[in-house]
Amino acid sequence: MIRVLIVCSWGMSTSLLVESMLEAAAARNCTLSVEALSAGEYMDRLDECDVVLIAPQIRHLRKSIEKLAQEAGKPVALIEPFHYATMNGEAVLEQVLLLLQGTQEGQAQP
Helix or strand or coil: residue 36? Predict the structure, then answer.
């Protein structure tokens, strides 16, 4: 199971992306769990995830989120704004898989 943590503002619009990602994962027979938490909540859940994604609307917090995630050894990236705006779960799932692939191959985390 791949566990994804999306850090966002309030989780309302992100919940639509979560549903889209779960549908995309089911179509690929990929077991996925996705949780969307606010910037004030995610820190306590870092150890429970495999990948951290940052919603575009809080990109101003990117450096602090990246720092904490990388200290916890978690790959982290900003969700492509176009994919977020269009709720393209397939594209965001692909981003997650690439992040994990980079980690498994020992490549530098973004």
Answer: strand
Dihedral Cα 84, 3, 32, 36, nearest 10 deg: -40
Q: At what angle do helices 12-27 and 89-104 cross, to 10 degrees?
A: 70
In 1-110 the beta strands, taken as DSSP E runs, fall at 2-8, 32-38, 51-54, 76-78
Nearest to 82 by CA among 100, 62, 56, 59: 56
The yes-or-no answer on residue 30 being catalytic is: no
pLDDT per residue as tens digits for the range 44-80: 999 999 999 999 999 999 999 999 999 999 999 999 9
The backbone torsions φ and ψ at residue 48, rounded to the nearest 5 degrees and listed phi first, read -90, 0
Q: Are 53 and 2 in contact (CB under 8 A)?
A: no
pTM exceeds cut of 0.85: yes
Residue from 4, 6, 7, 8 carrying the catalytic annotation: 8
